[in-house]
């Protein structure tokens, strides 16, 4: 039970779990599409949504076979919504894959980043980097002296493993702290800070707000 | 397989998001409750008004199964008063206030239903207004006036946006309160 549940109960009205999952999935999609780095894999949410989609497909298949002309319009609505959900999920997964593709080694070797991937994403990244490494090795790395063959050399102060640029600008909307109050955002490593109230829209560097976004005090838009 | 798009939402994606906004409809025929993936829909019983997501409202409208009740801010009176406000200040007109005690945010707020505040433009005002003008102009009073005022508002706000971009070069945070979703 998180803070939303408690507040919803206090308000005396509850949003159905399905609706809340749609809201969370939408937010996860927008964040993933806008943030420069990959975000934690929402395992429980994805499991629930995928299970519901599976059941809905079964239901639609079932009802299509009975082919009652009266219910055909209902089926159109169900199918339209299903397509919207599928688009959300597909776009969400694909934008994660795009980030993994761009910085495969970073996602595999940086422990905090690796922890944000799902199991199949780790599998994908491993296969991707193995293929790439094998290809490089057979086409040119194999001819190099042994000491120069590595793709993840960190010696000499230069890291070969490239990660995403965390200082890209993002659009962010403040959601407020637990009580809806404005939150302080401080930019790490500087004395710059600003107050972000509920509903405020800012353009800031991702690095400055990633903490707030992770805590649910702000969302990317 | 990976998404070939750059970071940030594209206009079609913003429109997709906008289609989740709630609008008020007046159904023309009965329809029982439907268990959708995003939660159950309310049963439709004419002539009772119901709030549904825009995508469903547009589907029903296209099939002439419902009329859409435009949000109060999508009227010549509201738009021209917002336009006057925009012209008189350098900042953007304030967005509708977020309700307290919930982390819900656009597009899941009832900011485009018949009960929305008439004097504040919500986040997806431009996309929503254009979609309604295209699909349901017969439900909107004075659609040509509304269209003209929306265009004027868009011009005024675009000019402000352009002027504001210079601030970004300072490397500090920039406040964009009240700016809609179609602006990046």
Automatic annotation (TrEMBL), chain A:
Belongs to the GINS4/SLD5 family. It is found in: Nucleus. Pfam families: Sld5 (PF05916), SLD5_C (PF16922). Residues 55-138 form the GINS subunit domain. Keywords: DNA replication, Nucleus. InterPro entries: GINS_A, GINS_bundle-like_dom_sf, GINS_Sld5, SLD5_C, Sld5_GINS_A. This is DNA replication complex GINS protein SLD5. The GINS complex plays an essential role in the initiation of DNA replication.
From TrEMBL, chain B:
Component of the GINS complex. It holds the Pfam family PSF2_N. Belongs to the GINS2/PSF2 family. The GINS complex plays an essential role in the initiation of DNA replication. Has a role in chromosome segregation. Residues 89-113 are annotated as: Disordered. Residues 10-69 form the DNA replication complex GINS protein PSF2 N-terminal domain. This is DNA replication complex GINS protein PSF2. The lineage of its organism: Eukaryota, Fungi, Dikarya, Ascomycota, Pezizomycotina. Residues 73-171 form the GINS subunit domain. Keywords: Chromosome partition, DNA replication, Nucleus. It is found in: Nucleus. InterPro entries: GINS_A, GINS_bundle-like_dom_sf, GINS_Psf2, PSF2_N.
């Amino acid at each position: 039970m998180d803070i939303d549940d408690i507040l919803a109960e206090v308000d005396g009205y509850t949003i159905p779990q399905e609706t809340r999952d749609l809201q969370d999935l939408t937010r996860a999609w927008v964040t993933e599409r806008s943030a420069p780095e990959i975000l934690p894999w929402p395992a429980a949410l994805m499991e629930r949504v995928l299970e519901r989609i599976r059941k809905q497909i079964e239901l639609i298949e079932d009802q299509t076979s009975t082919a009652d002309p009266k219910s055909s319009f209902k089926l159109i609505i169900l199918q339209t919504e299903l397509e919207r959900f599928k688009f959300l999920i597909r776009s969400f997964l694909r934008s994660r894959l795009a980030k993994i593709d761009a910085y495969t080694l970073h996602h595999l070797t940086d422990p905090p980043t690796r922890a944000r991937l799902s199991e199949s994403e780790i599998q994908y990244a491993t296969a991707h980097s193995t293929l790439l490494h094998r290809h490089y090795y057979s086409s040119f790395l194999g001819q190099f002296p042994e000491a120069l063959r590595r793709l993840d050399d960190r010696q000499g102060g230069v890291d070969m493993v490239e990660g995403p640029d965390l200082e890209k600008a993002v659009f962010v909307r403040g959601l407020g702290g637990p009580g809806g109050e404005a939150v302080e955002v401080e930019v790490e490593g500087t004395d710059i800070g600003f107050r972000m109230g509920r509903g405020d829209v800012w353009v800031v560097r991702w690095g400055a707000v990633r903490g707030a976004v992770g805590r649910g005090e702000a969302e990317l838009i | 397989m990976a998404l070939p798009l750059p970071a940030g939402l594209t206009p079609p994606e913003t429109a997709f998001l906008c289609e989740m906004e709630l609008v008020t409809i007046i159904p023309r025929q009965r329809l029982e409750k439907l268990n959708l993936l995003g939660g159950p829909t309310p049963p439709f019983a004419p002539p009772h008004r119901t709030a549904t997501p825009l995508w469903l409202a547009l589907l029903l409208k296209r099939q002439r199964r419902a009329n859409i009740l435009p949000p109060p801010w999508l009227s010549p009176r509201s738009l021209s008063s917002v336009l006057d406000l925009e012209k008189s200040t350098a900042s953007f007109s304030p967005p509708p206030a977020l309700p307290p005690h919930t982390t819900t945010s656009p597009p899941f707020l009832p900011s485009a239903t018949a009960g929305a505040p008439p004097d504040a433009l919500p986040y997806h005002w431009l996309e929503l207004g254009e979609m309604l003008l295209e699909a349901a102009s017969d439900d909107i009073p004075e659609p040509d006036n509304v269209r003209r005022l929306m265009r004027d508002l868009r011009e005024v706000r675009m000019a402000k946006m352009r002027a504001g971009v210079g601030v970004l070069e300072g490397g500090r945070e920039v406040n964009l309160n009240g700016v809609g979703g179609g602006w990046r």
